[in-house]
Amino acid sequence: MNGATNMMVEQNILEQQVARALQQADAIGDCLIAALLSQCLELIHSREPARD
After folding, report:
1. How many domains does the chain fold into?
2. Which of 43, 49, 36 is nearest to 15 (CA)?
3. Its domain of life (predicted)?
């Protein structure tokens, strides 16, 4: 795997972990943590390279 591919895999794993944590925060009603994790997901998505 080259560096760019490895970085994309790591970013995908991070996104999945943040999404799971967001679901857990929503499930227990922790609005502050859910809001912060939601912002993290938005940041991750905004940093994704354009895919054709």
Report:
1. 1
2. 43
3. Bacteria
